[in-house]
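Aim 2, interim progress: modelling of the iron/sulfur cluster-bound target.
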Amino acid sequence: MTALSTISSVYGPVDSWRVGKSLGIDLIMNTSTCSFNCTYCQLGFIQDITKERKLFISTEKIINDFNLSKWKEADIITFSGSGEPTLAINLGEVITKIKHITDKPIAILTNGTLLINQEVRNNVLNADLISVKLDAPDDKTLKEINRPADGVTLHSIILGIKELKSDIKDLNKSTKLQIQIMFMPQNKNQIESLAKLLNEIKPDEVALNTPTRPYPAGWDIITRGAHGEDTKKIKFPIKPLKTLSLEEAKNIENKLRELTNLQIISVYKN
Ligand code: SF4
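Predicted structure of the complex, ligand included:
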């Protein structure tokens, strides 16, 4: 088996329906590590469910890997990878260093659980796009879909997102705040309560998603960027997940638009 230290922390570019050609940065690479354990996670069952921030990979290795990568072919640089990127304490430092190399836009995909922490918000504020996951309108659904680390509540997540929105405004940043909702059997009938939260947060954009990547029976570094044909390379059995029908997705999109008046994009094309 290849040692993780010999694998690049930078992967892709991979095609993303939301942002085009996306170069992935994996700040974790230490098994799958996240403050959530989503039932649909492309990494499979999360091996280290934690809220504790730490250094996983040195900034030096990440910048070195970045320089050796195909970053020039990417439309956007996305922090995602083998878990929750805000768990890495060098997230802010890596963003600053990459901004010295290129002016390509930077996106962070986060579950929002650590945004309550001012230091984490300071780390993400230099990104051009922050996409925050919000699948559940209450703690019961949060536990069912996202299975968070102990102590994470919907209230703390919403508070963190609102604080981030205020920071963006107060500091006059051009950072776009996107809320991403993964629709599952557990939340597809909770549109009104999700719309209520969206109206409180008032993000710049809402991205509607449904699990298009399979759920692997184990973690393998390749799962961080695997989709389409790549999923055949995952060494564990994979399970396709229940997705919404086009009709259901369109109904949800229309209803959310009617209830929120927000800018909405969807993985489902017409
Ligand atoms: S937040 Fe993302 S990385 Fe974490 S378990 Fe959910 S889908 Fe996986």
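The chain is about 30% helix and 20% strand. The chain has one domain: 4-266.
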